[in-house]
Amino acid sequence: MIATPTRSDALGNRLEQIIAELDGEHLSLGGIIERIGSEGLLLLSMLLTVVFLIPVSIPGVSTVFGAALLLIGISRLTRRPLWLPVRLRERRLPAEKLRNGLRRGLSWVRRLERVSRPGRLAALADSRAIDTFNSLAFIFAALLLMAPFGFVPFSNTFPAIALLFYAIGMIQRDGGAILLGHLATIGTVVYFAVLIGGGGYALHALWRMVGGS
């Protein structure tokens, strides 16, 4: 388990240091994991989430990082070491675009850190049963992140915010942050329902127009 960060060891500072150490023309998920080392799965989750918090499209990242976040959630739920398929671990990603996206997304981490309070609403973070529930919620948010709505504004941002709140809350044992993660997940479901419902209505209206012409 990762120790609760102090002010001098803030999560944003640790992520910034990891990003600064990412070098080379291409990066892979396996290479990123090697840079993080023993910091833990939740810090890795934060790093993989940050890039989705800004309006930038980086080819291949959504599939690779989304799948990795899903497997991290499963690893936490089953309490087993993280397993990644070789193709996912070695998939090459554009390093410069990825580094820029991660740096720009760090501002979100720093904002969310300010609202986090270690030990707050401990009942939402401490027990075995609630940890299982939170891990299931994390997996669900990862699935929402992987939903095929990447072309729609904020479709990656909302579940990414939920995942970031979950990770911060689990690291700092902050039930308040975890609660915000649940609310962000609910908001994502509502947003997707509106998208699907609105798209279905538009297609139905178009079909009626075409059929009536």
UniProtKB/TrEMBL annotation:
Residue intervals passing through the bilayer: 41-74, 136-166, 178-203
Keyword Aminoacyl-tRNA synthetase included in the entry's annotation: no
UniProt xrefs under InterPro entries: ExoD (IPR010331)
Domain of life: Bacteria
Keyword Transmembrane helix (UniProt): yes
Keywords: Membrane, Transmembrane, Transmembrane helix
PANTHER family, per database record: EXOPOLYSACCHARIDE SYNTHESIS PROTEIN
Protein name (record): Exopolysaccharide biosynthesis protein
High-level lineage: Bacteria, Pseudomonadati, Pseudomonadota, Gammaproteobacteria, Lysobacterales
